[in-house]
Amino acid sequence: MRYLIADSTNLVTLTLTVPVLDAVLVVTRGDDELQLGEVTLGADGLSAVLEVQSGAGLIVGDVLTFVWTVTTATQVRAITETYRVIVDESQAAYYDIADVKRELRITTDEFDSDIVMLVAAAKSDLKLSGVTASAVDSDSPAPLIRMAIIVYCKAMFGLDNADSEKYLSSYRSLETSLALSSEYGASA
């Protein structure tokens, strides 16, 4: 999921690998269609851009669906993206912990700040180990990277964690494999 920051100007960009001839965007909130601005084609010819102005009626917590209809030289295709409206960038971390909370079997928000810190520590550790920042910080990280973050959190969460060493060993194995891989390693 991607994010828009309420009360701020946001640029929403769709980038393709082929030249864009035309792009039409429909934004919805539930069943309501929103008018957030005009779409322009990027100077590079490979992108379409929507500038969402501050005060565009975005409400914190809203989930917006963007459906781009893009025309290229060879095809017309629809691309759907989902955005959540947040207060500021730091709030994005709280939305990124849902998978970790589920794996830790936590249903309360009581430990959210601890889990956010563990996710950040896992990401930092992966980068220090040689996994590329672009792979770790991606809007939708690869399943192996998501698994490494979850296993790290399972290893580090709680003081009385009987399985901590088992999970830490699993994390180290994933971390090494990712760092040495041609797809995710710093030498990639």
Quick tags:
three-stranded antiparallel sheet; Immunoglobulin-like; 188 residues; 2 domains; alpha+beta
Q: Can you offer a commentary on this structure?
A:
- The protein is an alpha+beta fold.
- It is 35% helix and 27% strand.
- The protein contains six helices and eight strands.
- The chain has helices spanning 89-95, 98-103, 112-128, 133-136, 143-156, 164-180, and strands at 2-5, 10-15, 22-29, 32-34, 39-41, 47-52, 63-71, 76-86.
- It has a five-stranded mixed beta sheet with strand order 1-8-7-3-4. The chain has a three-stranded antiparallel beta sheet with strand order 2-6-5, with no helix packed on it.
- Helix 3 packs across helix 5 (143-156) and helix 5 packs antiparallel against helix 6.
- The two termini are 25 Å apart.
- The model has no long low-confidence stretch (mean pLDDT 86).
Average pLDDT rating: 86
CATH class of the largest domain: Mainly Beta
What is the CATH architecture descriptor of the largest domain?
Sandwich
Task: Give the total of beta strands.
Answer: 8
Quote the CATH topology of the largest domain: Immunoglobulin-like
Strand content: 25-35%
Poorly predicted runs of 5 or more residues: none
State the share of residues found in helices, binned by percent: 25-40%
Discrete helix count: 6
Gyration radius (Cα, Å) is 20 Å
Number of domains: 2
The largest sheet, given as strand count, sense and whether it forms a barrel, is: 5 strands, mixed
